[in-house]
């Protein structure tokens, strides 16, 4: 009998499977599997993955730069543009270094399920909320020098450090640049940091918005884009952009912050409910009630029209500075009554006894650099002078025309004064006759002046445009203990040898420390020494039936060289040599900030 074949049931031992690892069929299957994987992981796929990584890095760096610009812009109305940026660059550099260098340590501190990227939308959404609540008390207690840096340390610093740390994490997953372009490893290790810094600085320049186009009441796409470029709205847009750049499960917790910014933040320009909330806050104190009539973002800053309902006057504000003001409860019969004497003193150019031959019967002409609320142009027009006003900011011109007593029979030029004067000088004849009998130069804003308008080159343009018998008045606000005012006067005298200088008010004899004041420099084109500047006695028509002009039209408080207290030698300000003015602008702006807090209540500066 033939033996039975052993089975699983019979022996209880499973059969040993045959080894098929090296069969032709298995080998063919393995080759097909490898081929499929190779198709999926082609060089194009790897390249696409790298592009996505670098794209996220680029987005994070751009959002970080835009956040930094938005932060300093939102602090400018409370502290002024220069004080708000005084420590800004240092703080930004510190945040970038902290985020880049401590990337690994930050990741270790966070729970594994909640990486740092999840917190970015929260940090971005709550930054404007904290700035809104922190700015008023910190401004009151720390002032303009340290207030901005403290606020940005609590709001911008953590956001920027987190964004840069996330960018560094992304770069760790990217192919090393030393492998791509075959550089030595020491260079390859440094390239990500250098490249990220370069991209950040480039994005910082491109995301700096000087000012949006005028807001429209329509619901058009352009009006929406203009609204997104306002200070607070820009911060809302950035918070939403962070949600897209770093999708987060925690984003739901950002909703209260976004709702507060959009619904309750009184600084949201273009939103009627925000303006109503601002005015309610300003009128809580019944002993000193204020109202914001209009406000708008522009190329020179945040511009608004304010009115004191208690004291009866109206002012035009730009960031933390006043461009002019007039009384509403004392309306002048011919022109408005200005609240500041310095604007009236500018009109004394007409009182200077002109040297040389003045053509009889010819209508005099005037050039005004900087409009303000139009106090000087209105007076010149009232005296029958053909007046041209050059103003760089269209919103300032619009508000001056709509909310202040500015006549319409003058020529308005909305342009940078440097470009305008360059063109006018190039077009006029070479006989040196000039075009204008009077020139008024008044461009002070935010604690410092546009330096380009005080260079010897710009003043030479004004000299060329002034008639031989003409007179020029130049307003400069500065601290007599610092060098800028001394340098500006030195530059003016290098172009106009015959000048006399007057300040708005005398210095308190018992005062110590800073001596900040408005000064007006009166010069003639044909004179050769200061004694050539002589003011005639004003007649009744010169006063325009104005009480303010009766008191302030004739300059009284003359300034002499001994009044300049800076011991530093003053240099002529040139287009390629403005360092002497720039290095002291911060001190001047902080001094101006303190003065402004005494002119207008702090609550008005905070509720912008």
Automatic annotation (TrEMBL):
One of its GO terms (biological process) is methylation. It comes from Ophiostoma piceae (strain UAMH 11346) (Sap stain fungus). Pfam families: Spermine_synth (PF01564). It comes from the Eukaryota. CDD domains: AdoMet_MTases (cd02440). Residues 1-23 are annotated as: Disordered. The chain crosses the membrane at residues 57-79, 85-104, 116-135. This is Spermine spermidine synthase family protein. GO terms for molecular function: methyltransferase activity. Belongs to the methyltransferase superfamily. Keywords: Membrane, Methyltransferase, Transferase, Transmembrane, Transmembrane helix.
